[in-house]
Amino acid sequence: xxxxxxxxxxxxxxxxxxxxxxxxxxxxxxxxxxxxxxxxxxxxxxxxxxxxxxxxxxxxxxxxxxxxxxxxxxxxxxxxxxxxxxxxxxxxxxxxxxxxxxxxxxxxxxxxxxxxxxxxxxxxxxxxxxxxxxxxxxxxxxxxxxxxxxxxxxxxxxxxxxxxxxxxxxxxxxxxxxxxxxxxxxxxxxxxxxxxxxxxxxxxxxxxxxxxxxxxxxxxxxxxxxxxxxxxxxxxxxxxxxxxxxxxxxxxxxxxxxxxxxxxxxxxxxxxxxxxxxxxxxxxxxxxxxxxxxxxxxxxxxxxxxxxxxxxxxxx
Amino acid sequence: xxxxxxxxxxxxxxxxxxxxxxxxxxxxxxxxxxxxxxxxxxxxxxxxxxxxxxxxxxxxxxxxxxxxxxxxxxxxxxxxxxxxxxxxxxxxxxxxxxxxxxxxxxxxxxxxxxxxxxxxxxxxxxxxxxxxxxxxxxxxxxxxxxxxxxxxxxxxxxxxxxxxxxxxxxxxxxxxxxxxxxxxxxxxxxxxxxxxxxxxxxxxxxxxxxxxxxxxxxxxxxxxxxxxxxxxxxxxxxxxxxxxxxxxxxxxxxxxxxxxxxxxxxxxxxxxxxxxxxxxxxxxxxxxxxxxxxxxxxxxxxxxxxxxxxxxxxxxxxxxxxxxxxxxxxxx
Lengths: 316, 332
Prior knowledge:
Helix content of chain A: 25-40%
CATH architecture of the largest domain in chain B: 2-Layer Sandwich
CATH topology of the largest domain in chain B: Dihydrodipicolinate Reductase, domain 2
Largest sheet of chain B: 6 strands, parallel
CATH topology of the largest domain in chain A: Dihydrodipicolinate Reductase, domain 2
Structural class of chain A: alpha/beta
CATH superfamily of the largest domain in chain B: Dihydrodipicolinate Reductase, domain 2
Shape of chain B: globular
Strand order of the largest sheet of chain A: 7-8-9-6-10-11
Radius of gyration of chain A: 20 Å
Number of helices of chain A: 11
Structural class of chain B: alpha/beta
Number of domains of chain A: 2
Order of helices and strands of chain B: EHEEHEHEHEHEHHHEEEHEEHH
Shape of chain A: globular
Number of strands of chain A: 11
Radius of gyration of chain B: 21 Å
Strand order of the largest sheet of chain B: 3-2-1-4-5-6
Largest interface: A-B, 31 and 31 residues
Largest sheet of chain A: 6 strands, mixed
CATH class of the largest domain in chain B: Alpha Beta
CATH class of the largest domain in chain A: Alpha Beta
Oligomer: heterodimer
Number of domains of chain B: 2
Helix content of chain B: 25-40%
CATH superfamily of the largest domain in chain A: Dihydrodipicolinate Reductase, domain 2
Distance between the termini of chain B: 47 Å
Strand content of chain A: 15-25%
């Protein structure tokens, strides 16, 4: 579900590379010629009702689908996951699985009622640099608490605020939309959250401090190119990613291309990530979204002090 | 630096227009599409204003014209110079009219419109507004095609060439769910995947003397066109089953062949820069206007409305390939 979107081709590729077939796809928009590169025989629908009818008929005929892959806008994941379960399929959903922690409780119930499983894509957990880091921390002194700075700036133009991504009710805002996989990775490596403080939070950035069992993390996430470091802007680049642990830089700019396929492989091998694994990062971004920023107090990320700007459309 | 707007920003061909606008040193001020998966804009014009509602797009364009829009880089204040259009075919006419009435020149994807009479009406609006409509006819800028045209012009004037044109580009089932599979919206196979070939043929070989359709269905069209200087048998298809065996064997899903008197003209490559070339030409005042577009629109309209005569006379050998039923069981 969501075949015309930006991330859909990675799912097509993963389905194909794991030797499976895409039976049907749906999207309200019909610019989906990319399907031809993977599954030209796939049935494509613009209307949800017709998609549902097609899959119901396939089921009545003894066929049907084993898995439903969901890469629709964030706020629709919950509904589409439920649809998959009701259909009798396992579900593979893009992150964030849902926007609010209580949605997970309800999905757990739906999962056990249906006897089907929900999986999510947490591809950072398969990234070589991140795996190496986890190993290092696991094997290091157990009482050590690491000091870290996470900076991720991925510039987006004005279209962002016209699209569903710019609507906090639909995307969950910056922390959820561009940050959830980072929070998941941090929790996965450094353990439970002890403290979650937000310093600055606007339409285009979020800066805060999270204390995990084994790490103190100052983070800054932004989609505003005015927040890029000078040297990056000077090079004409629009993305800046820095993950700095005790002064040492962890490089993970590359190596993302095949992680969807890797995620699918693990799911089919019975090692996929489900609601349980997704819960912590959903809780973190929910808490960030619903907290009141404290301003520049305590231990904040240096970029948090960058001047804030008005919403390009003058919205609150 | 010229101010541009783009209609149809989320579609497949939109990035080529964004690239052409950027490569020619101009600025995309506003873009519109009903679908909002348009992150590609960031690669070209992150400051572009994007709309998913026509009314809001139109309002913005008006505000630009009234100099209400103030951008920190000082651009995009003042009226639009150009509106680029890459929407589904049946909407081109409406969007071209919008551009002209907004006081801009218009650059539209092919086919410019679906019916010849729409061109007459657009000509009236052109003279009313004093603005021009340009069409992307990129094959005319392809070096192989330019060479061919030169060769024909320099060859014996009374020679009439025999040509076979074969173009098969396999499309999956999604095609019939999308607007492309709806003949009222795309114009059918000849219009949707063939109009630039017919344009190229008319450009090189002159006026049409005869236009016969042998086979026409949801997934293919085969016919015969006699131009002043050429007799052309053509076969266009989106059905994988119609591919030659040797193409299938090497795993190909596309087959393109233009053979002149038994000699193959190779033009599979060299398409990447043609949108930018088209823009350069238009900006220098030498673009292809309504009159230039008319011939190919007439050809595809005649093909669309013609009754296929079946396998009679001089038909393309592939016309005899086994026909198939519509994947959804629909009538064509």
